[in-house]
Design goal:
mainly alpha
């Protein structure tokens, strides 16, 4: 099995995260635990959701395949 960083879904989801982190580097230090933190968490949420959706679809397919093999079809 390949490392998750090589998956296309992860690469596409991670691009906006990198952009937000890069843009927020220049924010004032006083905003580190306010706006900066909130933006960074918001950027990570869709990426994590897409990755988890992809993984759950793969697991669902594998489960169906296992059922088919077990039945001997």
């Amino acid at each position: 099995m390949q490392h998750f960083t090589k998956l296309l879904v992860w690469k596409r989801s991670h691009q906006p995260v990198l952009a937000i982190y890069g843009a927020s580097v220049g924010f004032p230090r006083a905003e580190l635990f306010g706006l900066t933190s909130q933006l960074r968490r918001a950027a990570l949420s869709p990426a994590a959701s897409r990755y988890l959706k992809e993984v759950s679809e793969i697991l669902r397919m594998l489960s169906g395949l296992r059922t088919t093999i077990t039945r001997g079809s």
